[in-house]
Amino acid sequence: MSNELNNIISHTTDGVFEGVAIGGDRFPGSTFMEHVLRYQDTPGVKMIVVLGEIGGTEEYNICQGIADGRITKPVVCWCIGTCATMFSSEVQFGHAGACANQASETAVAKNQALREAGAFVPNITEIRSILFKGRIIVPAQEVPPPTVPMDYSWARELGLIRKPASFMTSICDERGQELIYAGMPITEVFKEEMGLGGVLGLLWFQRRLPRYACHFIEMCLMVTADHGPAVSGAHNTIVCARAGKDLVSSLTSGLLTIGDRFGGALDAAAKQFSKAFDSGLLPMEFVNKMKKDGVLIMGIGHRVKSINNPDMRVQILKDFVKQHFPSTQLLDYALEVEKITTSKKPNLILNVDGFIGVAFVDLLRTCGGFTRDEADEFVEIGTLNGIFVLGRSIGFIGHYLDQKRLKQGLYRHPWDDISYVLPEHMSM
């Protein structure tokens, strides 16, 4: 603005004697009046031009100077920001953020006061009319300004719009002063001594489960934590660890082996037994149907354990469930199936995956915390396999740490444990 003002005056007068840009600093180094009085006392200055702005009261000092007779030279003055009255809300002008804090600080009020004090305050409308009449300025056709969208932050603050969420969550909220698990502050979790089973109930099921249910979950994690280094998941973890990989990579290698053939039979067993039981099939009818369809019964069978060499993990869980669960209809049904399968082959027992699967269905259906549809949904979305994944991760991490602690080198499978079966026509 200072550059343009000096440019205009230079082209319309015999030149600018001196120009000073004060700016809108909070603590200015000088004021309007200091320079105006200096120009008043400078013989070379014939006219004083002042460009003020909205906000502040410096221009009123010039009015007082004219009234007191301290300023006798012609003063041309204009305060910019007259358009502020057109806005319904407070508007700041320029990078310095000029704004009127009261009516006397508006540009219109200060221009009026300067005009009444005797300063030459341009009448923009009158000057524009004269320029148009003299064809000095040819008015251009007004082009409607484009509609400027409302600022997003402003619109959101006014409640006109809302930001769509990237995703939803219903299990945890960390935004407040205290971490909240499914609506329960973390301090309450510890005060109530909910344990790992209780926390899992909050984060997985959004429920505060009965004490026996929490204890059963913890027992499941304990009995599934590990089953030796020979099973595929532990074997993969060990091989990966001995190849120099980090903990997460080694753990992931083991977890990726979990499926219907290893550890992932909990969901499948729960679904198969539930479907058979709910449809009214007798245990023998269920076994015969699966045999006829050529489908393995998930959760039945073990490579080592048998009816004569029972799995103590299953026995421990069975004793607890029978003592504490309100009802064990599906478990009883599965045990009847076991009697039929073990009569054919002693190792076709209800294994730990199958037991946890059917017992968990009984838990969800009878603990009082879920509707039947909710219980079935948790089985459908893979919740039960999560129990095995969480539990077995404990063992996989143990195997990783064990290999690192023992400083075991790179694993290479021995030749004598591999059966090389090559096509005869390719042999030399």
Automatic annotation (TrEMBL):
Top-level enzyme category: transferase
Enzyme nomenclature, EC number: 2.3.3.8
Listed Gene3D superfamilies: Cytochrome P450-Terp, domain 2, Succinyl-CoA synthetase domains
Main location: cytoplasm
Signal peptide (UniProt feature, chain positions): none
Keyword Lipid biosynthesis: yes
UniProt-listed Pfam families: Citrate_synt, Ligase_CoA
Gene Ontology biological process terms from the UniProt entry: acetyl-CoA biosynthetic process; fatty acid biosynthetic process
GO cellular component: cytosol
Locations listed in the record: Cytoplasm
InterPro entries from the UniProt entry: Cit_synth/succinyl-CoA_lig_AS (IPR017440), Citrate_synth-like_sm_a-sub (IPR016143), Citrate_synthase (IPR002020), Citrate_synthase_sf (IPR036969), SUCC_ACL_C (IPR005811), Succinyl-CoA_synth-like (IPR016102)
MF GO annotations: ATP citrate synthase activity
Domain ATP-citrate synthase/succinyl-CoA ligase C-terminal: 1-119
Keywords, ordered alphabetically: Cytoplasm, Lipid biosynthesis, Lipid metabolism
Protein's name in the database: ATP citrate synthase
